[in-house]
Write a structure and sequence with these properties.
By secondary structure, this protein is α+β, with helices and mostly antiparallel strands. It is built from 25 helices and 34 strands. It has a six-stranded antiparallel β-sheet with strand order 21-20-19-18-17-25. Helix 19 crosses helix 25. Keywords: ANK repeat. It holds the Pfam family Ank_2. This is VWFA domain-containing protein. It comes from Fusarium oxysporum f. sp. radicis-cucumerinum.
């Protein structure tokens, strides 16, 4: 009995199952009123996690997969549909909001399932009136809406199975005649048809259901779990017992299955020792629901030899079929590929079933390592998949690691605008705009020279499609040169000008009780009159109270309110702090442009993200080999100085935030002296710089605010100081985290520049040099990530005795990500 047949049985018995990228199988299991996820490597249980509590007794659940997110949909003890989401960072499940949808009540015996479509997930359930209904989760907008009803009279408490093909949505359940009905909705016409699997009724309660369809004939068959026994029902109504579960929960196969015998039908053969599902279906797509349990996709391929009873790693009679399967599943290795090529397989051949080349298949399913392997073995980055799709076209709307696959294809010579009439002459850029809706990929393709004016068969250009997309980040990407950075930089300039107006108005002497010329005398900015148009918009105030009210109203009525809500007097306090600097002998930044720079810095929330790994204990030596300090001590001095400059104009109580890679200390709104006191400890641990950038900085400070109400108080400036390359995490984790930040901001209609990043180095580790070099010139993050060109400790040692030059140098470093 093969592991694959046991997997079918386990899938029928579980609440839901999902195949993970590494090939492991994840199962949702109901334990009383708790929902638990179990991860298996073959037969071995690797891990388990709590998903949710408070489920309805004898309830139901389903996985729903959306891009890089995984949900579990279930029925709670109050009879409502609820959702949990898996957090990859914490590796835990958390309650998720069902945006756009109120409470959805279900029948007290309802099962639940999810049918996955390319752009959406359809949740199927039985309503209180017995009707099978759907709600939709849009994968792009993350919105949930109520959708259509499924025709047909359903038996009360029936399991539900749902899946989609290229042409139709198929929903199956037991009707009131106790037979399995497969209801098919044609995507093109919208019409429904109903087919019955004959002799599919059961006297005992049916717990779960898997339904499969042959793509060519359209015939259906089913697997059913009833009274702990698994049955296979074919289109002719014949019924075979596959096996049963013992009292201990072990699956005991039938004699036929145990011996490796095959169940024959018009699809080919299902062999106990070889394949998962009815194997000769061109693309067998299965769904299951167990005790109201949830579905998942499976795509299975025809076995090389239906007569074999043992698994074979490669079947020589059908190697060409296997290379596509391996490319799709991510299981293609260098050894396997060498064997395929040695047997005469064409690396650029098209799969006779799907039309995809191996490279196209890997790009579609987001298998970056397979893309790299195939390209390294000279797969063509331009070889077409049917119908007329280049690998770049496929990758621009692919799953998984889309950004890095697009980057790799461009590096290997993919033609950025290559297309064909079979895809209506849509370019990769067009599909990135209209299907993937991925601003990062859009910017990468534009930077690689993609045409904004080339027309498709519908006479549309990429520029027109972007302008119609409704996505601000994509619209900015196609703006004319000089306008692509519009958004936050434009807003920051407006904010700076407004603060300078406040200073000019105060300087003019119009407000009673304020001495004329106090600001100009301090900052050498002359005595230009304040902007009269703006003054009129504030009703030409002459008292401090009227002035404050006018400022607040102007901020509220203008675009400046994007960051400063009604009642927020932050801008006025920045101006007040600027005036107070006349009494601060430590301030050496008094030139007009420096004054503007300090105002700009005050508009950002600085976050110092510091490396406290064990290597920070290393000594720093001078040119003569003498110990100057440790890396940690050097960083402490630098951060204390930089925070003093970055917060020089911020109001009291609005200082800098401090986070570390390893330490769990979280300091918010700290003064420079407070920061200094919190950096006096022994560093230890690894350098998971990207993992903890997300966990300790972006999740709590940026993402939670966006998810809560979509509102940021101020833009962020994340200042990272490190001494080495990432370890033990992958070296590209830091970059991917910044890319994710950009996507999350785009989703909430904030420009990516709302969170800027600066990374700097202390120490002279050559591995750190290599890591920082790898971050330069990357079009996906160049707009928001900047790198200090010098090793900070070396320049600091050179200037530490010249206070003015030291401040000016650190000021210029801080301004780099703001001014570009």
């Amino acid at each position: 009995m093969s592991g694959e047949i046991r997997t079918i049985a386990r899938a029928l018995r579980s609440a839901s199952h999902n195949t993970l990228p590494n090939g492991d199988l994840a199962f949702l299991e109901l334990q009383g009123r708790r929902l638990v996820e179990k991860i298996y490597d073959g037969e071995e249980l690797k891990d388990q996690r709590m998903v949710a509590a408070g489920l309805r007794e004898g309830s139901t659940a389903a996985y729903a997969v959306a891009k890089d997110r995984v949900f579990a949909v279930y029925i709670s003890d109050d009879g409502l549909i609820r959702v949990s989401e898996f957090d990859e960072d914490s590796e835990e499940w958390d309650d998720a909001e069902v945006d756009g949808l109120g409470d959805i009540s279900v029948h007290d015996q309802s099962h639940i399932t999810v049918a996955g479509l390319p752009s959406m997930n359809l949740v199927l359930y039985q309503a209180p009136d017995g009707t099978i209904k759907t709600i939709m989760h849009d994968k792009d907008s993350d919105r949930w809406t109520e959708e259509f009803n499924i025709p047909g009279s359903a038996a009360t408490g029936t399991p539900i199975a749902g899946f989609s093909t290229d042409e139709a949505l198929i929903v199956s359940f037991f009707g009131q005649d106790n037979e399995i009905h497969a209801h098919t909705r044609d995507f093109e016409s919208g019409d429904w048809t109903d087919k019955t699997i004959p002799d599919s009724s059961f006297d005992d309660t049916v717990d779960s259901l898997i339904v499969a369809q042959d793509k060519d004939s359209g015939n259906f068959e089913a697997y059913v779990l009833s009274n702990n026994t698994v049955y296979n029902i074919t289109k002719t109504g014949s019924r075979e017992t596959v096996g049963s579960f013992s009292r201990d929960g072990d699956f005991v196969p039938s004699t036929k299955a145990e011996s490796g015998g095959c169940y024959s039908n018009n699809w080919g053969n299902y062999c106990g020792g070889y394949t998962f599902g009815h194997a000769a279906a061109e693309k067998l797509q299965e769904k299951h629901v167990t005790h109201g349990r949830a579905p998942e996709w499976h795509v299975t391929e025809k076995p090389c030899n239906p007569g074999v009873t043992k698994p074979l790693p490669i079947c020589a009679s059908n190697m060409a079929d296997n290379i596509f399967v391996d490319a799709r599943k991510g299981s293609l290795t260098s050894t396997k590929l060498e064997a395929y090529l040695a047997s005469g397989v064409d690396i650029n051949a098209q799969d006779p079933k799907t039309g995809f080349t191996p490279l196209g298949m890997a790009a579609k399913y987001g298998r970056l390592s397979i893309v790299n392997l195939l390209l390294d073995k000279n797969a063509s980055p331009r070889a077409m998949s049917k119908p007329g799709m280049t690998p770049l076209y496929i990758a621009a709307n692919g799953n998984g690691d889309r950004v890095n696959i697009v980057r790799k294809l461009l590096e290997k010579g993919a033609q950025v605008d290559e297309t064909s009439a079979e895809v209506d002459n849509d370019t990769p850029l067009m599909v990135a705009i209209t299907h993937a809706r991925d601003p990062v990929v859009v910017n990468m393709l534009i930077d690689a020279g993609a045409s904004l004016q080339a027309k498709n068969s519908k006479n549309e250009t990429a520029k027109e499609l972007a302008e119609q997309s409704g996505n601000p980040a994509i619209q900015r990407a196609v703006s004319p040169p000089g306008q692509q950075m519009a958004g936050l930089p434009e807003l920051i300039n407006a904010l700076v000008n407004f603060v300078l107006f406040i200073l000019a108005y105060v300087n003019s002497g119009v407000i009673n009780g304020v001495v004329k010329g106090v600001v100009s005398n301090l900052y050498h900015i002359g005595q230009p009159p304040p902007d009269q148009t703006l003054a009129q918009e504030l009703d030409n105030p002459t008292t401090i109270d009227d002035f404050q009210k006018g400022v607040e109203k102007y901020v509220q009525d203008s675009d400046l309110g994007q960051f400063f809500a009604p009642g927020n007097d932050y801008l006025q306090k920045v101006a007040e702090k600027a005036i107070e600097l006349k009494d601060d002998p430590r301030n050496h930044l008094k030139e007009p442009e420096q004054m503007k720079g300090l105002v700009k810095l005050a508009l950002y929330q600085p976050i110092f993200y510091c490396d406290d790994s064990g290597s920070m204990q290393a000594n720093i030596l001078d040119p003569n080999g003498n110990v100057v300090s440790t890396r940690m001590e050097a960083m402490r001095s630098l951060v204390q100085r930089m925070s003093s400059i970055a917060t020089r104009l911020v109001p009291d109580g609005s200082g800098a935030h401090l986070r570390f890679i390893n330490s769990d200390y979280q300091g918010d709104d700290l003064t420079a002296d407070q920061i200094d006191s919190h950096m006096q400890f022994q560093p230890m641990g690894g350098t998971n710089i990207g993992t903890n950038l997300k966990k300790k900085v972006l999740e709590p400070l940026v993402f939670k605010k966006l998810d809560k109400d979509g509102k940021l108080d101020r833009p962020f400036l994340v200042l990272t100081i490190t001494d080495g390359e990432p370890s033990p995490e992958p070296v590209d984790t830091f970059k991917k985290t910044i890319e994710e930040c950009g996507r999350r901001l785009d989703q909430k209609d904030y420009p990516q520049e709302s969170t800027m990043f600066l990374i700097s180095q202390v120490g002279n580790d050559p591995h750190a040099d290599k890591f920082l070099d790898s971050l330069s010139g990357d079009t996906a993050i160049d707009r928001v990530l900047f790198r200090s060109s010098e090793r900070l400790h070396e320049k600091y040692a050179e200037l530490r005795d010249n206070e003015g030059e030291l401040e000016e140098w650190l000021f210029n470093i801080l301004m780099q990500p703001i001014t570009g």
